[in-house]
Write a structure and sequence with these properties.
Blueprint (H helix, E strand, L loop, with lengths): L17 H9 L7 H8 L14 H19 L1 E2 L3 H5 L5 E2 L1 E3 L6 E3 H4 L3 H21 L7 H4 L4
């Protein structure tokens, strides 16, 4: 199977050729686990090797930053019993804004016109990505048609 691979737009953290990285991952087999990808990347001759931080101190600090982002990405507002009975979804508590280097509660973001517009723009972009990712699933056609 011939593929064409590239990094997502705006992702400048990888200093490796996306095509070669994709081919190396595909060479693992029909299914590649994160552990298998990491094992393959340990070989300094691979393009995958360039995608990882190999200095253990730096890697530990970067991992802690990932954990901090995971905390803010996974905190949600718990609904009251009445709202749970109405089957309302949970709401993510914190979001990163364009004008800030940190995370803000959504209740603060909606009060700032520019930040709210950026959040809405990001939401549409994520919906579009979802649409592209799942466009081949016929069961989702009625939902995907609603996404611009």
């Amino acid at each position: 199977m011939k593929i064409l691979a590239s990094w997502k737009s705006g992702v400048g953290i990888f200093h490796a050729d996306a095509q070669t990285v994709a081919e190396e991952i595909l060479s693992i087999g029909d299914e590649a686990s994160a552990a298998q990808i990491l094992d393959k990347a340990r070989d300094e001759a691979t393009e995958l090797h360039k995608c990882f931080e190999w200095d253990d101190s730096a890697a530990a600090e970067k991992y802690r930053l990932v954990q901090a982002r995971n905390i803010t990405a996974n905190l949600v507002i718990r609904r009251t019993e009445e709202e749970v009975m109405e089957d309302k979804p949970e709401i993510r508590l914190f979001h990163k804004t364009e004008s800030s280097s940190g995370y803000k509660p959504i209740q603060v973001i909606v009060k700032n016109e520019d930040e709210y517009a950026n959040l809405l723009k990001r939401a549409y972009a994520e919906l579009h990505s979802f649409k592209v990712k799942y466009q081949n699933l016929k069961e989702l056609d009625y939902i995907l048609e609603l996404i611009p």
